[in-house]
């Protein structure tokens, strides 16, 4: 990944250019709250917006994108199919509901939210159909470990463009990053700030001070230098602007390694091999 500025992109395995920095809207209320957050983000150069059916705010996301004044082709919109709507026909119906709520002609990236056992292969076939029919520009997965990816690819001729995973200094998953790089699957981070947990890590506080940056800015820059797309969530206008102020410095290889070594295999979300929702 070549890091330039906030509008920079990375080429996915199907040739689509995806912004490597964006706004996540998990737990952001539909309506004014999500619309305002997205408008603040777009005003500050963000071009990637990540939502999901589960978040309950697709309608507001679509409203914000249309009202932003930015050309549709310049805004990259991701949404996801939830677990209880997986399977071939249910996924087609779920996507139809999502795109109607969004009010958009197409979605840039559609993800399988979690690897529901016995369902995700049929779900993937539905995504392939929607991609081939032009309703989606790229398809991918979320929360897939290496064995999930191998199982999926062994029964499919296509490879996910993206794998969105929990990724932060306490959960690096380097072997999964390496596997995805080998297969040309772009990794994307959810919960890059560990739901605020990164602010309590003294080593990160010290490194952030060294660079004259906040802990959030340090961690988000580390994400990008690891080759990982990142989508920090915020509804605060100043924080949205502050989070994006990461393109005027570079973390040294030694400090990158120091952040890597903070890994404790510690999750703030569910284990993809053991979830019940």
Automatic annotation (TrEMBL):
Which PANTHER family does the record cross-reference, listed alphabetically? 2,5-DIKETO-D-GLUCONIC ACID REDUCTASE, NADP-DEPENDENT OXIDOREDUCTASE DOMAIN-CONTAINING PROTEIN
The record's keywords, sorted A to Z, are: NADP, Oxidoreductase
Is DNA-binding one of the keywords UniProt gives this record? Answer: no
Q: Which CDD domains match?
A: AKR_AKR5G1-3
Family designation: Belongs to the aldo/keto reductase family.
Name the chain's protein. Answer: Aldo/keto reductase
* Organism, scientific name: Imperialibacter roseus
Domain NADP-dependent oxidoreductase per the UniProt entry, residue ranges: 28-263
């Amino acid at each position: 990944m070549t890091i330039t500025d906030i509008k920079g992109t990375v080429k996915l395995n199907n040739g689509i250019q995806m912004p490597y920095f964006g706004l996540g809207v998990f737990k952001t209320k539909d309506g004014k709250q999500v619309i305002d957050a997205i408008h603040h983000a777009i005003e500050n150069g963000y071009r990637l917006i990540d939502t999901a059916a589960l978040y309950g705010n697709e309608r507001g996301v679509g409203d914000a994108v249309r009202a932003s004044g930015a050309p549709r082709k310049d805004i990259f919109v991701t949404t996801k199919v939830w677990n209880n709507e997986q399977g071939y026909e249910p996924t087609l119906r779920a996507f139809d509901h999502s795109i109607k709520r969004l009010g958009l002609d197409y979605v840039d990236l559609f993800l399988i939210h979690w690897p529901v056992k016995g369902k995700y292969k049929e779900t993937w076939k539905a995504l392939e159909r929607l991609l081939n029919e032009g309703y989606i520009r790229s398809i991918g997965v979320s929360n897939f470990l290496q064995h999930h990816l191998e199982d999926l690819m062994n029964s499919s001729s296509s490879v996910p463009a993206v794998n969105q995973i929990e990724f932060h200094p306490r959960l690096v998953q380097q072997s999964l990053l390496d596997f995805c790089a080998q297969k040309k699957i772009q990794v994307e981070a959810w919960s890059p700030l560990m739901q605020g947990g990164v602010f309590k890590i003294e080593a990160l506080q010290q490194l952030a001070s060294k660079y004259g940056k906040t802990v959030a800015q340090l961690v988000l820059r580390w994400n990008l230098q690891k080759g990982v797309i990142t989508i920090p969530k915020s509804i605060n206008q100043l924080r949205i602007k502050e989070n994006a102020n990461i393109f005027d410095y570079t973390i040294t290889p030694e400090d990158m390694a120091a952040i890597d070594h903070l890994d404790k295999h510690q999750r703030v979300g569910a284990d993809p091999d053991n979830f019940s929702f």
